[in-house]
């Protein structure tokens, strides 16, 4: 299922924003004209990743609570204490709108 999240220009480059869609809690990150969507729950202790810091240079999102960092491309953690990946969702921009496939790639939501 494809969901229409928002207009691309509603997202600020280098920041994360949370969306709740059809039972999926999503962290959406825009870096320049690219959009990344991962699950919004840190796998260490279920804190919201969208409240964390974006590292645009490495395409990572850091959990604000304990510092685990997740790849926006693969969902894999690269800093403890998290050891499990977060789901990654396919996203694209069409006609200025951000669309996301709600079936995560390589992980369950």
Explain this structure to me?
The chain is mainly beta and 109 residues long. The chain has one domain: Rieske [2Fe-2S] iron-sulphur domain (Rieske Iron-sulfur Protein, 3-layer Sandwich), CATH 2.102.10. It has strands at 2-7, 15-21, 24-31, 34-39, 53-55, 60-62, 69-71, 88-89, 91-94, 97-101. The protein has a 4-stranded antiparallel beta sheet, with no helix packed on it. It is globular. The model has no long low-confidence stretch (mean pLDDT 93).
The largest sheet, given as strand count, sense and whether it forms a barrel, is:
4 strands, antiparallel
In the CATH hierarchy, the architecture is 3-layer Sandwich
Q: Specify the number of helices.
A: 0
Termini separation (Å)?
14 Å
Oligomer, anyone? single chain
- Give the count of structural domains: 1
The percent of residues in helical segments reads: under 10%
Secondary-structure element string: EEEEEEEEEE
- CATH topology, what is it called? Rieske Iron-sulfur Protein
Q: Determine the strand fraction and express it as a percent band.
A: 35-45%
Average pLDDT level: 93
Q: Uncertain spans, ≥5 residues at pLDDT below 50? A: none
- The gyration radius over C-alpha positions equals 13 Å
